[in-house]
Amino acid sequence: MFKEKSVIASELYKNIGSVVIPKEKLQDKVRFLGEQISHDFKNEDVVLISNLKGSFRFLSDLSASLNIPTQVDFISFTSYHGGTESTGEMRIIKDLKMPIENKNVIVVEDIVDTGYTIDFILKYFQDFRAPKSVKICTLLDKKEKRKIDVPVDYVGFVVPDLFLIGYGLDYKEYFRELNYIAEYNI
Ligand code: PRP
Question: Which of 43, 100, 110, 138 could link 54 by a cystine bridge, Cβ 3.0 to 4.6 Å?
């Protein structure tokens, strides 16, 4: 059974396409975003909220690049997908563990695509959690796919409409471990 599964996985790895963002560029950008956020929140403290699973790599590196006091929490708010497209119908898999009332919150995402997920998170926090402020920080912004207008405060890279994998982003739950972002040939 296990053998059969690993054969299928190795087939998937043959379809990795060109590198879109190499490791070094990711590292530089994360450092830059860390400096920007540290500057903007000088003398304040923030709660970094990572929306699982795609943002776990970015959250880890971004948090290490900050020089302000931070706390970290995780949510898993996700939308149903019709094929590879988000339908906008949201579900909460995992909610916050810690209270964020009167706190500065930065929601950390790997990618903003249609905008449905961020829109839902923002409304949910505003309606039920009363934070002091909420900012959005995304590594990737697939702007041309936006279906709903959402404020994105910190953006690593604006990317074209390609199927992207790596550094947290998956195809069939694989490829999150890659240290670079690549195109995937489905
Ligand atoms: C991805 C990504 C964002 C969302 C963005 O999550 O991590 O949360 O889609 O898409 P949107 O702007 O169209 O809403 P996904 O649901 O694929 O789950 P994952 O992070 O666990 O891979």
Answer: 110
Q: Residue 57 maps to which CATH number?
A: 3.40.50.2020
Residue 20's domain comprises: 15-184
Average pLDDT value for residue range 105-112: 98
| Residue 126 resides in a domain | yes
Flag whether 8 is in a domain: no
CA 62 to chain CA centroid, nearest Å: 11
Q: How far apart are CA 84 and CA 87, in angstroms?
A: 9
Domain count, the chain: 1
pLDDT tens track for 6-36? 678 889 999 999 999 999 999 999 999 999 9
d(CA 96, CA 170): 23
Q: Which of 52, 76, 78, 165 to mutate to test ligand 1, by most ligand atoms within 8 A of the CB atom?
A: 78
pLDDT tens for 78-108 read 987 766 777 889 999 999 999 999 999 999 9
- The CA 54 to ligand 1 mean position distance, Å, reads 7
Residue type, 168: G
* Neighbour count for residue 182 (Cβ, 10 Å): 21
In angstroms and rounded to an integer, the radius of gyration of the C-alpha atoms of the chain is: 17
